[in-house]
Amino acid sequence: MQRFDRGAYWALLDRLRATHRPRRFQELPTAPARSPYFLLRHDVDYSPAAALDLAREEAARGVRATYFLLPNGRHYNLLTAEFAAVPRRLVALGHEVGLHYDTRFFASFPRRRWRVLLESQAAFLGELAGAPVRSIAQHQPLLSGPDPFRRTRRFVNAYGSPLLRGMPYVSDACAAWRDASWAVLAADHLPPAFQLVLHAENWPRRAVPRLRLYARLHDDVARAVRDERDALLVKIRAHQGVREHDARERREERARLAGRRR
Ligand SMILES: [Zn+2]
Q: Are 185 and 255 within one domain?
């Protein structure tokens, strides 16, 4: 179970599901606390494709999770044709779409505008998803510093809701289990409620060593940028304006030389 691949993912989930129900964050305000459960959270930091692939498998097995999508990451852009349908597809599969937000973004604005800026991001994501965003989770809390929305009443905050305080937090960050996380997962008895925070790219169909896995996620973006660069250079060389500009300069240079010889 310490492996990270799709087989290990289902071994883990099935073991947890034997006694606990996976829940989405949006169920929290109404969820009866009586039966054991875990909040199944997927932070989509890098790969919507990996998220969708896992989301489909989960749906086929009756598992519903909350997928937190990042509107301003470097690795995907929800406003492009390639990714625009991802939130809607996740919702169609029965999952919840939540807002993953980078608090460093807000530093460019006065504090009094932060709440509206967060709500705009949530509204935008809700429009794409076709379902209002009810849950939010900060991206990279260790790098970004304190979350100014921790006490929000407008959303269920994965780090802030009073319900989550004191609830064990189990995360697969960097495709590794911290000792505290592993102690929860490997114990004979699971706590009555806990938050399981996963990243779909950590659970490929075949295991990949973690450094290669993360290098590859970045290499994919770098390759796409390189391909775009090459295509752009070809286009610029053939561009009509560029040809006319360069031909004009050559003509003017020839005229200047001819004038000097006279
Ligand atoms: Zn994140």
A: no
